Amino acid sequence: MSPPAEFISAIGTVIARYVAIKQALGRRYHTQRYLLTLLDRFLTSRGYLDLTPESFSAWCSSIEHLMPSGRRMRMQIVRQFCLYRRRNEPNCFVPDSSQFPPRQPKPQPHVFSEGQITRLLLATDGLHTYEFSPLYPQVARLALVLLYTSGLRRGEVTRLRLGDYDPLERVLLVRDSKFHKSRIIPLSPDAVREIQRYLEDRDRYFSRSPDAPLLIHSRGGINAYSGNGLRVLMRRLFRTADVRTAAGRLPRVHDLRFTFAFHALLRWYRTGADVQARLPALATYMGHVSILSTEYYLPFLDAVAHETSERFDRHCGRFLQTAPDERGDL
Q1: Last residue of a domain, one of 207, 241, 275
Q2: Are residues 136 and 229 in the same domain?
Q3: Is there a single domain that holds both residue 57 and residue 144?
Q4: SS in 3 state form for the chain?
Q5: Is residue 307 assigned to a domain?
Q6: The whole model's pTM is what?
């Protein structure tokens, strides 16, 4: 996606100012800027002098070919711009969000069992190497371990550099991730062992440089995996190990991050730890902007809810009395 040129419509100056403010607040805003550029070009090509109910309706018709979720996302971006504009122009048009395509239900996360993780680890040995990816099985194994034991995002894994791993402190530096936050995360003994094993294999093909990608292939030079490239690799691993969700679909790569959070919460409940007190630590470890993002995981965790119920019963059950049978009082 190439960066857009300057905005050229009649309201282009306002759009440019809005985008500049968002980026000044520390947001990348690349996707939103690109989509607002498309809106700007649409208004210019159709001769519209402003964003009105008529021009907005015409623009919505031009994106009818997209999926409902994609249309809603674009409409929401335009609406946010209009709300900003209304601060200085009280009479400007603001789309009615109730007329947008309905929200699509979020997919039910898949929690990997320990047995499934074991099968995935074994399946990495069955992956084939390629001319431009002699470390294909090793990359799949290390990516799996980091995603499962550290709860990293897919993009965070692909952006890791050799210099981000500190073998003495046994930590990873996750640079400039979502919301421009960097963090240092301690690694489990299993993750440290896997990284060391991977680096020994990597040394047979590539030289070490602190700025070189950790997960690497050599198509077109020495390159890191892209986010989509890692997604394709992991889906191939899921298919090879025949690991599927309850609905029979292949899991998402993000489900490994979800599983990390699930297992952390479950361990705390089972050991009687104060989960609310530990949520900030989990939020920091996972790179969440606040614990509200971390609390998102709680409603999905039926096993945690069951564990909570049993824990409550152990501590408070003696204070609860069953109402006597009315017939017994006669």
Answers
A1: 241
A2: yes
A3: no
A4: CCCCCCCCCCCHHHHHHHHHHHHHCCCCCHHHHHHHHHHHHHHHHHCCCCCCHHHHHHHHHHCCCCCHHHHHHHHHHHHHHHHHHHCCCCCCCCCCHHHCCCCCCCCCCCCCCHHHHHHHHHHHHHCCCECCECCHHHHHHHHHHHHHHHCCCHHHHHCCEHHHEECCCCEEEECCCHHHCCEEEECCHHHHHHHHHHHHHHCCCCCCCCCCECCEECCCCCEECCHHHHHHHHHHHHHHHCCCCCCCCCCCCHHHHHHHHHHHHHHHHHCCCCHHHHHHHHHHHHCCCCHHHHHCCHHHCHHHHHHHHHHHHHHHHHHCCCCCCHHHHC
A5: yes
A6: 0.71
Range of the domain at 228: 114-241
pLDDT in tens, 275-315: 778 888 888 888 887 666 676 666 665 555 555 556 556 65
Domain tally, the chain: 3
Residues 237 and 258 in one domain: no
Domain holding 180: CATH number? Answer: 1.10.443.10
Q: Domain boundary residue among 179, 211, 241?
A: 241
| Predicted confidence (pLDDT) per residue in 231-275, tens digit | 999 999 999 999 999 999 999 999 999 999 888 888 887 888 887
Residues 205 and 258 occupy one common structural domain: no
Q: Cα(143)–Cα(280) distance, rounded to whole angstroms? A: 26
